[in-house]
Amino acid sequence: MSTGIYCVYIILLTYTFTPDALGLDETAIIDLMQVVAPILPLLLVLAALSAQFSAAIADTSGSGGLMAEVSGGLITENRAYTLLVGIGILLTWTANIFEIISYASRAFALYYGLQAAIAAIRAAHCGQSVRAGCFGVMAAVGAAIAVIGTPVE
Fold first, then answer.
1. Tens of pLDDT along 12-45?
2. Are 114 and 142 in contact (CB under 8 A)?
C-alpha cells in the first residue's frame, strides 16, 4: 500500500514542476517540496534526520561487534565504535553529500555481491547448479556496480 501511495505521489509530483526548475544540489528536494506545502520541508528534514540517526545507531552497533568478532578480539568493540564514528565524522566533513551517497551505494553493492557469492558457493556445494549460477550472476553484478558504477551527477 505504501509503495502505491509513493508511486502516485511521484507521478503527481512530476507534473508540478517544469524541467530545470531548480539546480541539482544538496537541498533541491527541500526547495521543491516548499512549492507543494510550506510545512513539507520541515517534515522532510525531520524525517530524514530521524531515519539517518536510527540507521547510524543500528549500523554502528552491528558493525562494532562484527569488527571485534572478525578481528578475533584484536579490536575491542569500544575501539571499533570509536574508529567507525571517527571515519563517519571524517567522511561527513571532507566529502560532499553526493560523494557520500556514491560511497554508500558502492558499499551496499559490494556487500550484497559478497552475500550472493556466498549463496552461490553454498548452492554449488548442495548440487543446485541453477541457483548457484543465478547467485553467481548477482554476485558479478554487485561487483561490477561496486567497481565501475558511476554517480548520477
1. 877 776 666 556 666 677 777 777 778 888 888 8
2. yes
- Over residues 85-102, the pLDDT tens digits come to 898 899 889 988 788 888
Cα–Cα distance for residue pair 46/43, rounded to 1 Å: 5
In the structure grid, which three cell numbers stand for residue 83, read together?
Answer: 574508529
Question: What's residue 18's pLDDT?
Answer: 67
Using alpha carbons, list the distances in angstroms from residue 16 to 13, 32, 116: 5, 9, 40
With contact defined as beta carbons under 8 Å apart, do 80 and 60 qualify?
no
pTM of this structure: 0.60
Q: Which three cell numbers mark 88?
A: 563517519
Measured on CA atoms in the order 36, 41, 45, 46, is the torsion positive or negative? negative
User: Which amino acid is located at 139 in the chain?
Assistant: A
Identity of the residue numbered 151: P
- Alpha helices (runs of H) in the chain, residue ranges in sequence order: 2-14, 28-36, 40-70, 77-94, 97-125, 129-148
Distance, CA of 7 to CA of 14 (rounded, Å): 11
In eight-state DSSP terms, residue 149 is: -
